[in-house]
Amino acid sequence: MDKIVRIDMGAQGGPKATITPAGDYAGLGGRALTSTLVSKEVPPLCHPLGEDNKLVIAPGLLSGTTAATSGRLSVGCKSPLTGGIKEANAGGQPSQMLGRLGYAAIVLEGKPKDGTLYKILVNKDGVKITPADNLKMLGNYDTVEKLKGEFGDKIGVISIGPAGEMKMSAASIACTDMELRPTRHAGRGGVGAVMGSKGVKAIVIDDTGTKIRAPKDPEAFKAATKTWVEGLKKHPVTGQGMPAYGTNVLTNVINEAGGYPTHNFMWGRFEGCSRISGETQAEIENQRGGEGSATHGCHRGCIIRCSGTFYDKDGHYLTKQPEYETVWAHGGNCGIDDLDSIAMLDRLDDDFGVDTIEMGATIGVAMEAGVAKWGDAQAAINLVKEVGKGTPLGRILGNGAAVTGKVFGVERVPVVKGQSMPAYDPRAVQGIGVTYATSPMGADHTAGYAVATNILGVGGKVDPLKPEGQVELSKNLQIATAALDSTGMCLFVAMAILDQPETFQALIDSINAFHGLKLTADDFSELGKSVLTKERDFNIRAGFTSEHDRLPAFFKKESLPPHNIIFNVTDKDLDSVFKW
Amino acid sequence: MAADKITDRPETAPQPDLTLFVRPELMPAFYELLQSGVVVGAPIGSTIQSFLCQTLGLKPQYVEERIQTIFLNGKAVDDPASAVVNDHATIALSAAMPGLLGATLRKGGFYAKMRGEISHAGQAKVSPHEGRVVLKLFNLLPAEIGSLILEKGVWVDGKILKAFFEKRLSLFLEGCREARLHGRSVDVGRLAEQEWPDGELYLRVQKG
Question: I need a surface site. Which of A5, A226, A244, B48 has the fewest CB within 10 A?
């Protein structure tokens, strides 16, 4: 992955691609690359939909190799939703393919002079950009079908739906999975709107004729990846729970903990939980699609296989197994307890190309405003269809919960830096609230994942019983996650790494053996710190202050049933997270 | 797996109201019941550890290694050997959970501080007596120990049972070999139409 292709969409005479060595970005991957490039090259005060913003698409350091579960793709830019720096992450096939083609990044720059829509083909022969007005306003599913017809079925596709073309701030970027379905999304922060503003409907990737990336030290790499696979397989979460039930296995437990945001964060428990849990979802999927339907990897080489396939009542494919966040957003958050309706909402979100978390939170705010009744699944489906059609109401909703709350006069809007909170109430789990408040990404649950920080010893040894424990933990987790996001590894490896030091060491050994490096655990955490430092710096230059590192006021005032607690981490503590 | 988990204990269950004899492939149909919660007898005033091992018959090693997340009345338990069962308590059990939140909720986990406000803390003494608790099983546990709990017998609300059979009638027609209500054989096909009483019914499920 030693080259970068920059595509100037506003070049004189039409879009122009230039392939250069990775240069200053050599040795970086995933989030490390996207955040470094954005913080260096994008003027922080630029308009996110303007010509000065850049959309950076980068595979991880190990993408395209034989390392298991290494197929995550990072997408970075200035976010139209938050106004700050953004890295959104997706599974699917494109990361592995771009890695094998040798690209460290695709960078979309400039802006077309007219309204022409383009598609971009990336293969071993180079990069070709052609008009694609025949794809205008198509959903992601139809877009991929048309591209399959044109390029064959050995491709991967990165695309936007109508929401991205309409530049809605909740617009996502879709990546195709192993079945060439647009089911994996870089969802958060409106990255799809930025791709739409660049006039790019789809990037077609064809790695035919390429080889698996070769490590610098094949023997050491083989040994490290063997230990890595063993570690993932033997851990009860990555080896058993996730393949069986997927992320939605969290529904029952978070609900039991009283931290399951219900009816727009009004309560912490949802009565209908067991009807939409991961366990129930797996039962339905296996009944309708046959045994094994609830187990599926989003990219080749994934051995956790936390995804699955959801069929409708007649046994026809409807959508990929909805994730916990999606089931919550469209389920308990809106009072909906029917998995078929939630799956339909997931399908519509994927097809129109919107972030399921943002969409669900937005509908929750709309329900609080009285636009629809709590629990009315058909009304929720109709609202998402409005987004896809781009009606005036749809355009409001498609720009996220903050905009919707403003338009309808709703005070209780669960956003930080303009981005909706995911599926864990910060009053119940205050540590996640610290992450929501302080992450440069806005309210983001993946920004503070666990990667054996007790082994890293980042920030010194932390006593979890001390009052300052939560702030320190959040900081350490954010650092570790930033590092992990740079490798292309799926975040769900975190559990195995947390419990099994030898598995974490195998990850570092894999990186070292592949790239001919001698990184230690400390270097890994330094990478994470450096990424976070750049992201924070960008946000400060974009005008963010400590006042943006706060939760909405109602979390400090409204007690959350059933435990009747408020968020009580002090502002002083929140401001101490990034002092290192 | 069953032999690894259950220790021998004396049989003291009351006379069941409904006994179902089902094929093994029908067992997953009961998982939703186990997730929502079933009522079981419990020695009030004993510890969670004691309830799991003495009453439910789970082996200590299974409790230690497999049951990674425990809630008592919605609070995350870090030490099952000190958390005390109160009458009408809700006890929820899960295998290891994914992600940061999974790690945060784990019993005795490193990240426990992140959920300090919902952690089970000290409680008042409870005088020992026989009572009942609601037991919920999540994640891999319904598949691993659900059938053993159902074999020993649970109480389920009549309305919940009716809705349960209505939703799964076709599965029961195929997978349920026999049903006995108050000791007498009943048509499996009529389970969904049956007028179940208000209040709890004692249910046993025999697999085979």
Answer: A226
